[in-house]
# Entry
Amino acid sequence: MFALRTSQLLRIGEEILRVALTHRSVETVREKVMSPLSVEQATYARDAFAKAIYERLFNWLVCRLNASLDSKVSRQHAIISVPPKIGPPRPFYVVKNGPP
# Structure
């Protein structure tokens, strides 16, 4: 279920995603060897993949908010606080715009 929905959202093949998250690939000059990951290793790979996607989406969102504030609030001071969704408790991320 995870692989099907995720592959649809990322617009890649379900089998490509499944193999990427459950196998390790070692490439030499002459050949490419695929070996399966243990359940623990595959779980770690899945979690790392999800975290990387979340981080990229979050950075994209912050850039979009900054661009929006730059174009709409030229001389006013604006702050938007965004709480992190995953991981240990951390301070809020702050998106700022205003005079230097």
Observations:
- The mean pLDDT is 79.
- The radius of gyration is 20 Å.
- The CA atoms of residues 19 and 36 lie 9 Å apart.
